[in-house]
Amino acid sequence: MRISPWAGLLLLGNTVLSHAVHDKAPRALATITPCPAAPVSFAPPPITVTSQYQEVSTCEAKTACLKRRCTTQYSYHTYDYVSTIIPGPDSPITVTRTDQSVLISHSSTTITSTALVTKVRFGHRFTATATAYTTQVKEWSALYKDIGPLALPGYEGSGLCQSCKGPHGEKRQQLEVIECVSHPKGPTVCRGGVEDWIYIPAPTSTSKATAVCSSKAVAPSAGTFIFAFPQHAPPAVIHVPARTVTYTVGGPHPGVATTTLTETVTTLPGRDWTAFVTRSFVRPTTFDFTVTVTKTIFYTVPPWVAPWPT
């Protein structure tokens, strides 16, 4: 596919290097007041946070009264501080503690059902169609420290997860799930559970993408020029081999289960990529080029989702 010139142009000549000045003292990320509700006379001093995952303290105040005399006790516990922004299903999510619950995904589905009903009007019977709508809302979440590379697209995880790798090298992600079903003439029924996403390593599927890139223009000065040509690879068909999966079963009878998955064929959506062409010139000049750029695109098999316990 031939691309029109000037798809993108980056000038790399006359680069200016800047040197950062580092202080000897670590930079403060935040200041935590462990117990703001406690009297100043015995409240612990503020904690200066200088690194991610630094252990800090917080407190919970509990007041008890007996015969009109009240006392307040402060119970302290520690947690690992973190300050980061990660991608979310709708917008970026700010995380400030490793045990913070993070929304991974959500869905809402409306199920339409119809039935024939008999009605009587003015002494006459007739048949009508009744329509009912059922709404199913589902949310997946996990603690920040338990987020691995499978949870959020484009995010490699917190790096703290201890259970995101299976005994045979497979990637896995365990999520807390809440599912609520709303009926038109009944109460909303919710249930919670644990869902396992499992990625079993399979032979890598690749495809070759090519682009014919051309440009004709004038380089205004000496330097190195990079031309960027946006491309779009078509959908890819992946053959997923048969494999055996071992997963954890929750619910009232927890345990370990094994299942065999049959060979399947999956179609993945097209993918954007960019073809780059680099040219260097020692003086201002007119250039004209046409080159073919080839790129290998790697595809991975989507994770398998373990069924909910029944």
Automatic annotation (TrEMBL):
Keywords: Signal
Secretion signal span: 1-20
Domain of life from the UniProt record: Eukaryota
Name under which the protein is recorded: Uncharacterized protein
The species this protein was found in: Capronia epimyces CBS 606.96
